[in-house]
Write a structure and sequence with these properties.
This protein has one domain: Growth Hormone, Chain: A, CATH 1.20.1250. Helices cover about 80% and strands about 0% of the residues.
């Protein structure tokens, strides 16, 4: 009966909507732990230097690089698997592995042991980080992705801040080893929850694309398509510059506040963590909302929001790193980070929208590989080496300079995309007329 069929369709749609919301909730929780595990080591830099390990600034920076190099190198593998295998199982594996590796860092007896543990975290996070954005794009339609990714990526500032705050507090009261234990254990629960996730059909909400685009092409064909996708390449090139600056700032700011500004250790980690939470939450949601809102006016809205916001962040970032007055540098830090975090949701929405559904995990993997190879793999040790050669106060001035580069590339990508749109639209209209 027609009424019965309509009711069944409505019930099915409601079930899919609930499944999508549950997926967003679980994946966001994983992303929070992802960044907590990443940045807990940043809160422990000064303790690691003063501990029996006697690490230098260059070695502390190398711990960030250990994670990033492995994360970058293994992402293409999991990207290829994520476009072809069952995604919830791959995610569960990744979360369980990185959680165990974080806890094992607490048993390190030297720099080498700590280095290996942090490197192993990168394998686990590669399995998760390449696949989750592609799943979210298949859970939700294009016009909601800016806000969906804003929710998902709001876990970045919250998780990062928890890494700083939790790491700093546990370190103060129980030591740096305990901080790694506390950060690693909760991931086991979320790894089990990953197995409950529904794996949505690839391209489920991309009705405007040919059905063939939802299928996963051969691996070489997928990378060849991405290498010829100029808007995508420009987007990840700007993302690499942005990641370079953000990675350096995220890793070194607690030590900068303590060493250069004279802020007490616990206050430095807790204060910076609180700033990251507040600014990240506001900036990420503002950027996601604005990107979706402006999508009605231009298809390049995600790139415009990212580029303009990043350029606007340059001046307050410079002031935050040069002013000796606490009221000035803390206020400037808040303004800069709100603007910086506005790019988080839009730029990731741009990446998944610029490629075919069957290539999304591979595209995210290629993005991860590129932004870390050129971004936060070299930036923490580079700033550490510059600090050892001169001072940390001078070394961090590289951060606003690279934000300029990121903003210019994204604005150019948006302008280039708008120039290409009329031709693409005429071609599509011609094709549609021919079919009619």
């Amino acid at each position: 009966m027609p009424g019965h069929e309509h009711a069944s369709e409505t019930s099915h749609e409601m079930t899919l909507a609930r499944s999508a919301r549950l997926g967003l909730l679980i994946l966001t929780g994983m992303n929070l732990l992802n960044y907590l595990d990443r940045f807990v080591v940043s809160a422990l830099v000064e303790s690691l230097k003063a501990s029996e390990l006697h690490l230098t600034d260059t070695q502390c920076g190398a711990l960030g690089t250990a994670f990033m190099v492995v994360y970058m190198a293994t992402s293409p593998v999991f990207g290829a698997l994520g476009d072809r295998w069952k995604r919830p199982r791959l995610i569960a594996f990744g979360v369980a592995l990185w959680s165990a590796a974080t806890a094992l860092a607490g048993f390190a007896r030297g720099f080498a042991g700590l280095f290996v543990a942090r490197a192993t975290v990168g394998v686990g996070e590669a399995a998760y980080g390449t696949i989750s954005p592609a799943m979210l794009a298949d859970y939700f339609p294009k016009e909601q992705r800016g806000r969906v990714f804003a929710v998902f990526f709001s876990a970045i500032p919250i998780g990062s801040a928890l890494g700083y705050v939790l790491g700093g507090l546990v370190d103060r009261h129980f030591g740096w080893r305990a901080a790694f234990f506390v950060a690693g254990v909760p991931g086991v629960i979320l790894a089990a929850l990953a197995l409950l996730l529904r794996d949505p059909p690839r391209g489920a909400h991309d009705e405007d694309l040919p059905a063939a685009h939802a299928a996963s092409p051969g691996l070489l064909s997928a990378y060849r398509d991405l290498a010829g996708n100029t808007p995508y390449l420009l987007t990840i090139l700007g993302y690499a510059a942005y990641t370079f600056a953000l990675g350096a700032m995220a890793f070194w700011m607690p030590a900068f506040l303590e060493r250069v500004r004279g802020v007490p250790k616990e206050e430095a980690t807790v204060t910076f963590g609180a700033i990251v939470v507040a600014t990240g939450f506001v900036g990420t949601f503002a950027g996601g909302w604005l990107g979706d809102r402006l999508l009605r006016r231009t298809r390049q809205s995600y790139l415009w929001v990212s580029g303009v916001a990043t350029l606007l962040a340059v001046v307050p970032a410079f002031v935050a790193l040069t002013s000796p007055r606490p009221a000035v540098f803390f206020t400037a830090t808040v303004v800069a980070e709100v603007l910086v975090f506005m790019s988080t949701g839009p730029i990731n929405s741009a990446i998944v929208n610029l490629v075919a559904p069957g290539e999304r995990a591979t595209a995210v993997a290629m993005s991860i590989f590129t932004i870390h190879l050129l971004g936060d793999v070299p930036s923490p040790p580079l700033v550490g080496a510059l600090s050892d050669a001169s001072s940390l106060g001078r070394a961090v001035l590289i951060i606003p300079a690279v934000f300029v580069l990121a903003g210019i590339i994204w604005c150019y990508a948006a302008w280039h995309g708008e120039r290409m749109e009329p031709t693409s639209q005429r071609a599509n209209e011609s094709t549609s007329s021919g079919k009619e």
